[in-house]
Amino acid sequence: MVKRVIPKTSSTDLPPKEKLFHYPFSASLKAGVAQRNIDPPIGIRAASWGAAKSHISTGLHRDITTTALAVLHGSTPLFLVTVDWGWWQGVKDDLNIRGKVIAGLGIKEDQLQLHLTHTHAGPNTACDVAHLEGGELLAPYHQFAVDSIISACKEATDSAIAATLTWAYGKCDLAVNRELPCGEVDIVGFNPGVEADDTLTVGRVSDASGAIIATIVNYACHPTTLAWQNTDVSPDFIGAAREMVEQKTGAPMLFLQGASGDLAPRDGYVGDHEIADKNGRILGFASLAVLEKMIPSGKAMRFKNRVESGALLAEWEDFPFNSSTFTDAIRLDIDVPLQDLPTFEELEERWKDIDAGARETRLARARKLRTGYVLENQRAKHPVWIWAWGDAIIVGQPGEAYSFFQTELRRRHPDRVIFVLNCTNGPGYVYIPTPDAYSRFRYQSWQTLLEVGALELITDEVSAAIARMPKFGR
After folding, report:
1. Does residue 288 sit within a domain?
2. Do 96 and 141 contact (CB within 8 A), yes or no?
3. Which residue spans within 207-246 are E strands per DSSP?
C-alpha cells in the first residue's frame, strides 16, 4: 500500500498574483438614459411579410418604444438609440428618420448609432408608400417618432451623471439555427442539426449609490415569432423580455439585436402573442440571471485568506475599484466586393412564377438596396461604427451579419467584452452571409448585394481596428 502524504502549506504558499484578483469588465463614464413610448395608430401600414394577406395593423400587442443612452466622449455626447422597428428598406427611408434626428440634435452623423431592434411585426419604415393602404398614416407617425427620439436624446444628455458601466457575458438558448436543408437548397426555418450561438451580453449602468439607471441587453435572434398570420403591431419577444427586466430593475432597458442573420427562435412564424411572450420570458430570465451574478457596481474581487475547514478554502472579498474612463469612437468605410448583380428585368423573370405579393416585395427591396450603396466597378463601401467604453467595444453596422461576425470578434478579443449590432445606421441594409450560404443558394445569399468573402473581410477590418485601441490591465 502506498501511503499518501498531504503537503503542508505556509503563509508564503499563495496562488500566482494574477489569480489573486478578479476584475469586472467596466467603465466609469458620464451617462444618462431616457425612454419614450412611440405606439403607432391602428390602421397604419405594417408590411413585413410577402405571405401576409393584410398589410395594415388591427391592434397593439405590446408597446413600441425608443430608448436613448447618452455617454459623454470627452465633452461630446455619443447616442446609442434603439427603436422597436424592423429595418431600413433604403437610404431615403433611413435618412428620413436618422437625418432628421441628427439635424434636430445639432450633432455630427457619427455621434449617433440609431439601432432598429428588427421586429418583423412593427410599423413600416418606408417613406414612399403613402398611396398604399395604411401608408397615409406613416408620414405623421414618422415625424412623431423623430420628435420622440430627439426628446429622449436631449433628456438623456441633460440627466447624464457620473456612472459605472459594468458588463458581463451569459447564455441564452432562445436562438436556433434557421437554415434547414431542403433538397439542393436551404430554406429559412429551424435546423436542429446545427448549434446556434447562445452568447448573451448584458450591461448595467449604475449611479454612485449602486442603483441601476439602465440596462443593455445584446442578443442575436431574429424577432420572427409573429409572422404573416399576425396583424397586431408588436416588438415581438423583445417586449416581454424588456418588461421583465424593467420591472426588476426599475430602469429602462435597451435591447440591441446581434449578428442574427442565421439565427431565430425555434417557435416562430405564428400569430399567437403568447408564443412571442414565452420567447421573451426565455430572454428575460437569462438577462436577469446575468445581472444577478455581476460583481457590485464599482467593486472588484481579491483573494482574502485561506480558511482551514474540512477542506482548505479560499476566501474572497469585494474591494473598491476605479474603472477605466477611456472612450473612443471611430468609423470604418470598408471596401467590399459586390456580386454580379442581375438587372431588374432578370429579377422579374426569375420570380415570375411566385406569389404576386411576395414578388413585388422582393423587387421593391432589390431596387432600394442598391441606391446610395453600390459604387462603380462592382464595389461598395460598408460603414461600421466602433465605440469603446472602457473595456466594452460596441460594433454597429447596417447589415444583417451572420453570427460568425460576433463569435469571431469575441474569439479574437477575449480581453474585451464585445457588443455586436445589426440594423444600425446605413447604407448597406444587406445580409452578410458565410460562404456556405452561397453554395446552398440560401435566401440570404440572393438577397444580398455582397460577394462571397465580404463577411470575412469586414470581420478582419473591424478586428484590426479593435486591436489598435488601448487595452487596460486587468
Report:
1. no
2. no
3. 212-219, 232-233
Q: What's CA 88's distance to the chain center, in Å? A: 15
pLDDT at 467: 97
Is the model's pTM score more than 0.90? Answer: yes
Residue span of the structural domain in which 347 resides: 327-392+424-468
Q: At what angle do helices 138-158 and 91-105 cross, to 10 degrees?
A: 40
Distance between CA atoms of 467 and 12, rounded to whole angstroms?
38
In this structure, how many other beta carbons lie within 10 angstroms of the beta carbon of residue 322? 10
pLDDT of residue 31: 98
375-391 pLDDT, tens digit each? 877 789 999 999 999 99
Q: Cis (ω within 30 of 0) for the bond into 223?
A: no
* DSSP β-bridge partners for residue 207: none
Domain count of the chain? 1
d(CA 345, CA 408): 38
**Predicted confidence (pLDDT) per residue in 199-247, tens digit:** 999 999 999 999 999 999 999 999 999 999 999 999 999 999 999 999 9
Rg (CA), the chain: 24
140: which DSSP letter? H
Q: Check if the beta carbon of residue 79 is closer than 8 Å to that of residue 107.
A: yes
